[in-house]
Specification:
- There is one protein chain.
- This protein is of the alpha/beta class.
- It is built from seven helices and 26 strands.
- It has helices spanning 6-14, 155-163, 202-212, 227-239, 259-265, 300-318, 370-375; strands spanning 22-26, 39-40, 50-51, 55-58, 68-76, 90-94, 106-109, 113-115, 120-123, 133-134, 145-147, 168-172, 176-182, 186-187, 198-199, 216-223, 244-248, 269-273, 277-278, 284-288, 291-296, 327-332, 343-353, 356-361, 378-382, 394-399.
- Strand 20 (284-288) and strand 21 (291-296) form a beta hairpin.
Length: 401
Amino acid sequence: MSLLPVEEALQRLLDDAEPLAAETVALTDAFDRVLAAPLAALRTQPPFDASAMDGYAAKAADVAATPVTLKVIGSAPAGRAFQGAVGTGETVRVFTGAPLPAGSDTIVIQENVRDLGDGSVEVLESASEGRNIRRKGLDFNAGDVLLKKGRVLDAAALSLAASANHPALAVVRRPLVAIIATGDELLPPGSTPGPDQIISSNAYGVAAAAHSVGALALDLGIAPDRKDAIAAAVRQAVEAGANVIVTLGGASVGDHDLVHDVLTGEGMTLDFWKLAMRPGKPLMFGRMGAIRCIGLPGNPVASLVCSQLFLKPLLARLGGRPFSQDIREASLTTDMAANDRRQDYIRARIEQDGSRLAATPFGVQDSSMLRALSDANGLIIRPPHAPKAEAGSTCQVLMLR
């Protein structure tokens, strides 16, 4: 099988990927979820003409010339309307959010009024008609579409939905990713490895990548290099309702790389295997019915770079969430050699240099070196067969942070 270009691999991986079905969740559980349908207001806000300030409701004609004395005929706190009507020479004490008393058409703020202590007040500054009044429907009216389908629900959107009297919202189901690490050499963090063993790390980064685009991650642990053990983990993922199964390692061509055989034995149809990229050449993708299967490389840097390039866009698409890679232009700070047929993603430090970004590649790019990836805030993208590039020339960088 020939090496597949990165862009074609991504297109094939995203082909036919549509947002998952909707589910209804309580407003309290809807933060950072994706709205599955347009949201219309169930009420008008405010539902009546309301006072925008603490003060006194009056007729604008009565307070056009000040100072003037008005008789206080009642009070209207928020949540309890004044039942009478304001006549000429009268006023009602009102508080923020209270319905505007009938007969009044302006609010004089309390700082501009002096209580005379005998049931009357002296208005010290005039207030024009409509002053300090929130008109009915100022924010929205019943039936107005307030939020569009696909909106990621942040604090403002949730407050708006609550104000529109929605106790629950229809949101796109969060994709479930089942993660299966493979390899006899792997042990979980906190273990004491033997002389031929290492600590498993990839699953934690892949789960974090899934969480960053709103997906759920199910870590199914480490499967030893036995077909029956890997198959059992795959079946566990299917039973859990996984939308995506991610395997870590074991997808290459070695005698102990068993993942491909197990997945095809469980019903996967292989789409592609081996990409024209570095790191991440041995990436596998196939479908098991509606489940998408991604075999990530075992090298940790390759696993995380491929998660950025392929897993996150897929999960975002399934979750109905907008997603785009943050690719920018930068200037190289050093010469770079000509490239071969694979597209390189080179760990680098990206810094602001005047009006431009400057990209400095790290000296060693071995795909086992997580520290360099952690220190990098971007990846220099070197296309296949790119010629030698000199310091100062323009390059593209994929920002990681």
